[in-house]
Every structure is written in C-alpha cells, then in structure tokens.
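Reviewer 2 asked us to include a model.

Predict the structure of this chain.
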Amino acid sequence: LAIKMAPPPRCKLARRALLALATLVSHGPSAVEGLACPAARARAPLMPGSVVTGLLRPTRRGALLVRAAAEASEASATKAAGVVVVGGGPAGLAAALEIRRRTGSPVTVLEAAAPLREFDPERAFLYLIDGRGERFTDAFDLTAAVHRQGVALGEDFAVTVCTPDGERAVKSVKIIDPNRRVTPHWIPRHDFVNLVADKAALDPGITIVEGANVTSIEIAEGGTSVRVSAVSPLSANARAEPNTEASAEANTEANTEANPEARAASKVYESNVYEGWLVVGADGARSMVRETLDAWAREGLDLDGEGDSSATKEAKSKGRFSMSSCVPGWAQGRRWWRRGRFQLSEVESPAAGLRYKVLSLPGSFSLESPPKNATEAAKQAGKAAANGGEGGSSEGGGGGASRAVPTMTYSYRSAWAGRDPSKELRLGLLPRRAAGDLRTANLITPPTHALWTDPELGTEEGMAAFLEESFPQLDLQGILGPDSGEIARLAKSKGGKFPKPTTTRGGAAFPIPSRKGTPRAAAGGAAAGGAAVVLVGDALHFFPPDVGQGVNSALEDVLALG
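Predicted model (structure tokens):
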C-alpha cells in the first residue's frame, strides 16, 4: 500500500495527521498512540527489526513520512552503542572525539546526510575559527591543518569593491583586536567537517551511520539508558539480489535517471534502535532531541514526583515513562522553570529575518567585464594569452588580464543601487585557500526582495537575465560556462533565513534518575546509575552568522562536556 502525496504540508496538524496515517499503515492502530501530542512528534518508532521499502521524506520538523508498507526482516532489534550522538556536523563529530578522549566509551554518530562528506552548495558557507575554536583544534592536533587549509584574517580586513562600471578599489577596515592571542582563520564548512571526520575515522571506537533519520528517543525501563530509534538505508551487501527477470528489469528501470521517483521508491531502509547511557543532541536548530527533552521536562521525568500527575507517578513507579500527557509546566503549578527550561528564548538582531542564496564560483576567475563587442573580446583574449591563458596574472599583476585571487575578499555592487530598492543587492565572496576549489558568492537580501517575490527569478532564464543586468561587471556566462547548471540550481534554491539569536531557557542537560532514584555517578556503564541527554551546538543555541558565534560556541560546548 502506498501513500501518494504532494510535498509535505507546512501545517503542523496536517503533518501529524499524515505521520499518524503512515504509522497506521506500517504498524497498525496500537503504534499511533501518542502522536496527537506535538512535543511527542514521531512518538511511535518503526518497529525494531523492520525494513521499510519506499521513500522517506523528512518534513521541516524532521518527522519521517513513509510512503510504503513495512516488511519483516532479520535485522537486529537493538544495538548497544555506549554513547549515541545525534547529528554528524562539526558539533556532533567533535563531541564524539571528546567523549572518546574523556571516557573511552564507544560512540555511535547518527547523521541524516548521506554521504556525510558530500559537498552541499546550499551549505557552502565559511567558518571563522577563532581562539575559542582553537581550544578544540589544539586538543586534537587539528590547528595546523586548519591554518594550512584556511586563510588568516589579519588586523586589517581588506575588501576589493567591484562597481558596475568595471572599476575596482580595495578598502581596508580594522575589525580585529590587535591584542588578540590567536589569529582567526576562514575555512569552508565542507573542509572543516572533513578534517574532523578524518580524525574520527582514525578511532575504531567511533562508528558513523550515514543517512540515519532519527524517529524517536525513549527512556529505557529503569532509567539506566536511552534508546534512539533511527531509519537508515540498508547496506548494499545486505540487500537480496533480484532472482527473476521481472525483478531485475524493475530494478534497472528504477535506477535510471529518467525515472527518479521509481529510483527513490526502490530504496530499502532498515530500522535500528541504538541504546546508550548518554545521548548527545547535535542535530541543529530544529533539534528533535531538544523537542524530546522539552516534552520530558514538561512531564517532570527528572523531578522527585512533586507536582506530577497521577498518570506520571504511576509510570515512574513502574520504571516506564510516557510522553503522552505533555502538560505544560506552568499549568501544573509547580517548578515551572524546570519544566519549561528547554523552551526557546529569542533576542532581537539586525540581521534576523534576512534571507540568502549561495552561488558557487571557481576559486579564481576573470575580473574583466564581459566584452561588449568582438574588439573587446580580442583584447581580453590577448591579455589572457600574454599571461599564460587560464593561469594568467593575479589581480592587477603584470598588466595583463586580472583574475580573482582566492585568498582575497570581493564585494560586487549592483547596477540597481539607488534605482530600485526591491532589486538592489550585493554579491560577496569570502576568501579561501585553494584556487582549484569552488568558492561561495553570497546573495543576502531582505525577504521583500525580488529574489523571493518575483516568480521569473525562479527560472533559469529569468535568474540569468537578472544577474546579468544586476552585475554587468561580472562575466558569469564566461566564468561558469554554458553547461554548468549552476544558474538553474540557484534559481530553484529555496535559500535560507538568518534566525534571531536563540537559546534554551537554561536547559542544556537532562539527567535521568534510575529506578532507585540515584543519578549516574560515573561514565563506566549502565550500572553506575541513571542515563543522561545533553545538547550542544545549534541544538542548544543558534545565531545569525553576522555575530560570528556559531561553530566556535559549538566547539566550546563540546569541551564543556568534560
């Protein structure tokens, strides 16, 4: 039985209804209990040991809608993981390394992306690793690699401003404290993730599961461990080979580029449960771990029972904890702060609400304006030939055709400046080390900009015409080539939005009392006491990028785990 539907609805009630329907189809009526509570999203996990054949489609809030039926399999029901880290970004991978260093416990990292190291143009932004971040890189001998692959930010921040008339001028701004002890370094997110992932791969005690979508987090009976249910693609060697001509033909058809829906539906997923004494939530701003802790805190699962409902008291007495009531703490009349400490609190920021898209350009490209006629084209070709063609001079060097220097910062000003505020924008390129790698050009605008309101800019032709008119000094067609597909990707991209600086109302860790009421006293094993769940990185606090706090705060969180 298949549930055919359009892209997941944005309405919370509709999303929960579809999730309940998918769960009902897969597991029967008994598995749908508890889905009515918003905080208990994805409460009913896929049954351990089941294999789901079909398309898993994550919504904005991370719930999985299953468009297929479940089949029985021989997959193992529960895996002892020691420590489970939800999220394999910089914070999650760093947490795995720190936990291994501090406790020696085995760590399993569950990352939704597959593959983890794949370049994602939608997240191709840069990190500025400062002294706080270097405390972590120093601890794991990664600082030299960051300096080698990154670009140092000196006392003077130099920006080459490129105006629509083809003129270029270098402006310098002092933005760094000259008395600082550590020189910050720009490094692409993709490169930094790879550095930390390479370090984690050297440790046999760290297991990274890619493509793992977490569906539920539950407290085990007795409170000595936490179980994390996740759905991930079944490994190729675990799949049965087609043994009939019909199945082989269907498999071939499903994997053709002409039939992407059939290819997606042919994927096979398995459900596993990872059990550990510690769970680290490093799953980003829309953290499922944080939402789960909020539900637990509202129900008072970490308190001594004062103010609990009768149902909660009964569940605690049996060592089993239900998330079905989700009564807000302030409605229960006692300990309202502890019950609401995982709720989010925001502060205002000038950058909050701005939207952005990311254009990927070569590390080095021609700074010359597009030729207006054959004569100009011949002149530019002669300059390039005089300086070795594509390997020609850097900016302003040798009198030949100028090319962008990868380690320099550029700001392209739009021809719409002073003419039409709804179309005015700038194209900013931050520095990176390698000339042969892609570099990002950011388009950051208010949400009322034509980039978001004009439907023509959602097409490749409309976007290409808009960029050509906006930046006549930038030869995008010559830089990208006719078949790159980058402009089409940019047009279809939904981009991102700068959030307000946000954090929890004091909640960062959730110690779970064991059945006897004794909290965990050591990291040795389940017998040492109750389990715990902690938050790090964007799951705990997130910021707009202009305040420069994100990755460095996440790495500080990781060191605080010790």
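The first helix runs from residue 12 to 27. The longest strand covers residues 268-281. We have added this to the supplementary material.
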